[in-house]
Amino acid sequence: MRIATYNVNGVNGRLPVLLEWLEATAPDVVCLQELKAPDEKFPAAAIEQAGYGAIWHGQKSWNGVAILARGGTPVETRRGLPDDPDPAQSRYLEAAVNGVVVGCLYLPNGNPRPGPKFDYKLRWMAAFEALAGKLFDLGEPVVLAGDYNIIPTEADVYKPERWVDDALFAPDVRAAFKRLTDAGWTDALRHLHPDEQVFTFWDYFRNAFARDAGLRIDHQLLNAAAAKRLKAAGVDRSARGLPKTSDHAPVWIELK
DNA sequence: ATGCCCTTGCGTCAAGGA
């Protein structure tokens, strides 16, 4: 079972890229972030045509998350975080697919720091951490996949010194991510590629992708039941090179 | 220290992203 997460940066603007990638790689489950579309503008027909059932949690202009299942339909288990600090922002959706619980998240960016946006990021992370605590011991495999907007360590950014004041690399943000892995959640990509430089995002500025000036901010955290089944993980870098593409690349894991 | 690029929205600029 292959589970992918992909911040599409506008599901309608990137629809040709999304469909090309689905066709080329055929993941079993896909978590999408940054739909930037209200519910009624989610391209459900085109996605169904590609062979995927879907559930989505949209919002006008910003945010928005969706879960796709190849040849089926995800069974929704949660919409929004419990104690969400701002329920108007669509950033969390959760579903069961073939016995695996998949949480799809779009964690707030938090810039500029300090400020209200950074405070919101911290509050959102606290609510997410509380939910993760409940999900870990569910008994079934759980995968929390999405755009975390967190650079976990200096190894996850092309030039750490440039990012010391950024909300993605802030000490309390990195500490929150470390608390999750210390609690037993497995950072799938880093677990299988401990010494490799692996990026999932390259900004549109300064020809960043061509220079490989990237960040690793899209993650899949696995509870113990899911980690036992982890076989492989990787980044579909080729999608980042397509015309009119997202600034993120899809990240995938393979579970036995 | 700042802009770079790219998206959406009632829109020909602003705001958000990371």
What gross morphology would you assign? globular
Coarse structural class? alpha+beta
Tally of distinct domains = 1
Uncertain ranges: none
CATH H-tier superfamily = Endonuclease/exonuclease/phosphatase
Mean pLDDT, to the nearest integer, reads 96
The CATH class label is Alpha Beta
In angstroms, what separates the terminal alpha carbons?
6 Å
Task: Describe how the helices and strands are arranged.
Blueprint: E1 2-7, H1 15-25, E2 29-33, H2 44-49, E3 52-57, E4 65-70, E5 75-79, E6 92-97, E7 100-106, H3 116-136, E8 142-147, H4 171-182, E9 186-187, H5 188-192, H6 208-211, E10 218-222, H7 224-227, E11 230-235, H8 237-240, E12 251-255
Parallel strand pairs: 1-2, 7-8
Antiparallel strand pairs: 1-12, 2-4, 3-4, 5-6, 6-7, 8-10, 9-10, 11-12
Helix pairs in contact: 3-4
The structure holds one DNA strand of 18 nucleotides.
Question: Any descriptors?
Answer:
AP_endonuclease_F1_BS; alpha+beta; metal-binding; six-stranded mixed beta sheet; DNA-binding; Deoxyribonuclease I, Chain A; 256 residues; 8 helices; hydrolase
Describe the structure.
The protein has 256 residues and is of the alpha+beta class. The protein has one domain (2-255): Deoxyribonuclease I, Chain A (4-Layer Sandwich), CATH 3.60.10. Helix content is 26%, strand content 25%. The chain has eight helices and twelve strands. It has helices at 15-25, 44-49, 116-136, 171-182, 188-192, 208-211, 224-227, 237-240, and strands at residues 2-7, 29-33, 52-57, 65-70, 75-79, 92-97, 100-106, 142-147, 186-187, 218-222, 230-235, 251-255. It has a six-stranded mixed beta sheet with strand order 3-4-2-1-12-11. A six-stranded mixed beta sheet has the order 5-6-7-8-10-9. Strand 6 and strand 7 form a beta hairpin. Helix 3 (116-136) packs parallel to helix 4 (171-182). The chain is globular and about 45 Å long. It starts with a strand and ends with a strand. The model has no long low-confidence stretch (mean pLDDT 96).
